[in-house]
Specification:
Blueprint: H1 3-18, H2 25-32, H3 36-42, H4 46-70, H5 75-87, H6 92-102, H7 106-128, H8 135-153, H9 161-172
């Protein structure tokens, strides 16, 4: 793993563990096993590093959801699979922190918006394959529901796929 990759990995871990605002250059460098000056050698600033790490993790997660959808035989199976994948606590705090950071930073907001738009486009194409009416709007509502579930799980870890899928399935009808 390169130094840059170690820094990005350390950043995603620390954002999830401590929160965006509690990640310092010193703590990040220590986690990555490098000197603090190395952080600024590889990245223009600590906020730029945190943004790249968080948006990259979000992009990877969305890509994984597309793979999950591609293997689903029905819309219900797709909902089950996506929400089951989101039942895992991995990344929960990171995504919550990233969404919160996006409310305060235009660059992060734009990058997160691109990732979410990409997810909605893929979801709409997948829904169209099942003749779901108005797949673009349906995808927008389902994506917003998934985003909301991620945020709400920070407050209510009991909010699981088992309780949510039947409700969202009604949206697909």
């Amino acid at each position: 793993m390169t130094v840059r990759e170690r820094l990005l990995t350390a950043a995603t871990e620390l954002i999830a563990e401590r929160g965006w605002g509690a990640v310092s250059t010193r703590v990040l460098a220590e986690r990555a096993g490098v000197g603090p000056g190395v952080v600024h050698y590889h990245f223009a600033s600590l906020p730029a590093l945190l943004a790249e790490a968080a948006v990259g993790a979000l992009r990877t997660a969305v890509s994984g959801l597309r793979d999950v959808l591609a293997s689903a035989a029905t819309p219900r199976a797709g909902l089950d699979a996506v929400l089951a994948a989101l039942d895992s606590p991995d990344g929960q705090e990171l995504f919550t922190e990233t969404f919160l950071a996006a409310t305060r930073d235009d660059t992060i907001r734009a990058a997160v918006g691109e990732v979410l738009a990409e997810f909605r486009r893929g979801l709409a194409e997948w829904l169209a394959g099942f003749d779901v009416p108005d797949p673009e709007r349906t995808a927008a509502v389902l994506a917003a529901a998934v985003d909301g579930l991620l945020l709400h799980r920070a407050l209510d870890p009991g909010l699981s796929a088992a309780g949510v899928v039947p409700v969202l399935e009604r949206v697909l009808r």
